[in-house]
Amino acid sequence: MTVPALPDIDRTPLITRLGRWAKEYPDDRAYTFVDYTTDVEGAVTDLTWSELDRRARAVAAALRRACQPGRRVAILAPQCMDYVVAFFGAMYARTIGVPLFSPDLPGHAERLLAVYTDADPECVLTVSAVLPQVEAFLDRNPVPRPKQIVVVDDLGADDAEWTPEEVRPDDVAYLQYTSGSTRTPAGVIITHGNFAANAVQLWGAFDGTPRTSTGVMWLPLFHDMGLVSVCGLPLVYGNPGTFMDPVAFIMRPVRWLELLSRYRDVFTGGPNFAYEYLTATVTEEEKRGLDLSGVSVFMNGAEPIRPSTMEDFLAAFAGCGMTPQSQVPAYGLAEATVYVTASRRDRPPTTTAFDREGLEQGVARPCGPDDENASLLVGCGAPWGQHVLVVDPETCVARQDGQVGEIWVHGPNVADGYWGRPETTAELFRAVLAEPAEGVPAGPWLRTGDLGLWHDGELYVTGRIKDLIIVDGRNHYPQDLEYTACTAHEAVRHDYAAAFAVTGDDTEGVVIIAERNRRVPVARLDPAEVAAAVRAAVQLRHDVHLRDFVLLEPGGLPRTSSAKVARSACRRAYLDGTLPVTRPHQG
Questions:
Q1: Mind listing the pLDDT tens digit for each residue in 482-540?
Q2: Alpha carbon distance 486, 516 (integer Å)
Q3: What are phi and psi for residue 155, nearest 5 degrees?
Q4: Which residues belong to any copy of the AMP-dependent synthetase/ligase domain (predicted)?
Q5: What's the rounded Cα separation, in Å, for the pair 167 and 389?
Q6: What are 335-376's pLDDT values in tens digits?
Q7: Following DSSP, what letter does each residue of 300-347 receive, concatenated?
């Protein structure tokens, strides 16, 4: 495909822009946090630009009394306004923020210990409500004691007079730890220039209106998509942003749509499962109170996008004013800060059927959506302000449109590398094209590890290289096998399956594990019957003989902190025999 020249992107650090907006629009609303823990209807807290600026300066002053610029500072706090203040305070202090979470977040203890140990922060930022939990985490684990624990909501106004120092685009802003879907979490080194550039690029994708458009988000601030969309986007042009706690969304998903209904010219985003969750749980009575006509963008990213999800979501909420073109499939990753490509805003998303056998051979052959071998893929659009190529991972030569290869990225948003991992950084962040076309930089390129193809000007993501299953010389995408398993029997929980390869007897075989559906009574569930149905469906659809199928208890499938299927962890647990297997009902 043709690779156009990159536009000039303003890399002015976003923390510098905070000071600018505090002077130009001191009393305008900057951020709104809606807290559902104190009020089921949502308690609203607003911060103006000047208030945010003063509070962030106070945090910076407190930090600089204990640590020097360039040192790591961990944020151990729940999702709240003080988290945003802490994040920008670390930036003002010219320290390296490590956005994490409160130690009492269920199911994340192992990840927190691993990431905290890797980052080795000198200081900790937290809030008074969880200070005991932070102290307990530090006391019971073999981690160095921080020089200081700064309680953000206890700081006085005196420190707000602290004068910020110059922050340069190439200074490190924060470490974004990956979710660890195919490896242990690694700290991605995000510079201030990366953060600013990607926020500008994301604005270009959203096509928002400066000073007018509003973002409404529930995504966790310790994940890349949440951090950039909640903290980064408002600072580009001084637009207001609204956010809530992810737990509030999970507990009552319609809250997200209710917040969106309050605004005109509003954008939002979330992973595929969130839209499936809304479709399945929002009642007809709740829909009558929604007005989604002001939502310009429902971005769908961070995990594989299902065509059926978008179709069902539109069908469920078109009556609430939602438009087809508001659905914007996107592709991104932490190593590129977050955003890489997104579909066009002037038309509904594109779904294309490709011949599955062709994809297995590395060639995209369009076919009819009802063909027996059809694999439906969602187009993730094109990049804005960065180069994206599909490259042969072995020869490092760019592939032609319609050919499957590894997705490579080049642009001002590509991170500096991984914290403390120079060899992996050199391998993945310093790639060089073997035969660059005219006008295409030879390097450095980011090797994403994702497989994809270009078709009709759009990027289609097909899977991960490390997850690819090769049996009898044929490539199989695990998500295809998983989808077949989930639709083979009602007792298999939708989207809660993992396919992977295991080696034995000098051959490689395929194993699928899947959680059982809670809605199917255990008394009438026969694991052997379910296994037979899954085996037959996979054999018929993919010509693959399963070495094993295991039905798990609900909650038993290993997943990452961002709810992605952790296939490598699934494989380890299967081989170790530690999976919670569903047993035949007795009695």
A1: 989 999 999 999 889 999 988 765 567 899 999 999 888 888 888 889 999 999 989 88
A2: 10
A3: -75, 140
A4: 20-419
A5: 32
A6: 999 999 999 888 999 999 999 889 988 999 999 998 988 999
A7: E-SSPPPHHHHHHHHHHHGGGT--GGGEEEEEE-GGGSSEEEE--TTS
Output the six-digit token pair for 416.
Answer: 């500096």
- Three-state secondary structure readout of 275-296: HHHHHHHCCHHHHCCCCCCCEE
498 with 544: CB under 8 angstroms? no
- 63 is written with which tokens? 């930090």
Tokens of 496: 């809660």
Which two structure tokens, joined as six digits, stand for 492?
A: 């298999």
Residue burial 490-527, b: 16+ Cβ < 10 Å; e: rest: ebbbbbbbbbbbeeeeeeebbbbbbbbbeeeeeeebeb
Nearest alpha carbon to residue 405 among 440, 443, 449: 449
Helices (H), 332-436: 356-360, 422-429
> Which letter does DSSP use for residue 464 in this model?
E
CA distances from 326 to 76, 227, 266, 282 (A): 35, 22, 10, 19
Whether 449 contacts 340, CB under 8 Å: no
* Helix spans in 167-287 (H): 192-206, 224-227, 233-237, 246-251, 254-260, 272-281, 284-287
Tell me the pairing of strands 507-516 and 546-552: parallel
Does the structural domain 469-576 have CATH classification 3.40.50.300? no
Q: Which amino acid belongs to residue 107?
A: G
Query: What pLDDT score does 181 carry?
Result: 47
Q: Which residues have a Cβ under 8 Å from the Cβ of 122 and sit 6 or more positions away?
A: 66, 67, 71, 72, 73, 146, 147
Domains 14-244 and 469-576 share a fold: no
Q: Which of 176, 193, 163 is nearest to 64 (CA)?
A: 163
- Terminal alpha carbon distance of the chain: 63
| CA nearest neighbour of 364 among 272, 461, 450, 291 | 461
Distance of alpha carbon 341 from alpha carbon 125, whole angstroms: 33
**Model confidence, pTM:** 0.87
| Cβ 324 vs Cβ 297: under 8 Å | no
How many whole angstroms separate alpha carbon 232 and alpha carbon 529?
A: 50
Task: Read off the pLDDT band of 182 (50, 70, 90).
Answer: very low
The domain segmentation of the chain, as residue ranges, is 14-244, 350-464, 469-576
Would you tell me how many other CB atoms lie within 10 Å of the CB of residue 376? 13
- 284-to-288, 312, 316 alpha-carbon distances in Å: 7, 15, 9
Grouping H, G, I as helix, E, B as strand and the rest as coil, residue 573 is helix
Question: Which architecture characterizes domain 350-464 according to CATH?
Answer: Roll (2.30)
Rg of the chain in Å (alpha carbons): 24
Q: Which of 10, 11, 50, 43 is nearest to 27 (CA)?
A: 50
Instruction: Measure the CA–CA gap between 336 and 343, rounded to whole angstroms.
Output: 18
CATH 3.40.50.12780 for domain 14-244, yes or no, is yes
Which residues, including other chains, have CB under 8 Å from residue 580's CB and lie 6 or more apart? 552, 553, 555, 556
Which pLDDT score, from 0 to 100, does residue 561 have?
65
Which residue type is seen at 340? Answer: V
H or E stretch including 133? helix 131-140
Residue 138 Cα to chain centre, angstroms = 28
Please give the structure tokens belonging to residue 451: 């497989």
